Sequence to fold (83 residues):
Amino acid sequence: APPIALRVAREGAQALLVVSDHGPGIADPARMLQPFERGDVSRAQGGAGLGLAIVARIVARHGGHIDIETPAGGGARLCVRLP
Fold:
């Protein structure tokens, strides 16, 4: 598994949590926030495809927002912003 980097910061009145890796990336970020969706690479590793959907709902219930990005150099970056 590729190494994962975590960053926690404060931006104004928001808390920011950034989780990034150098894996294969996420082809369709919006789809990955839906229940039972998994990336193509993860299909061989099992799992129900609920992790990011649960995170997105928890973040939304706390008045926050989650963004999933695929950086130009590869990998994935998840940015969670909470008030």
Observations:
- The chain is about 20% helix and 35% strand.
- The two ends are 32 Å apart (CA to CA).
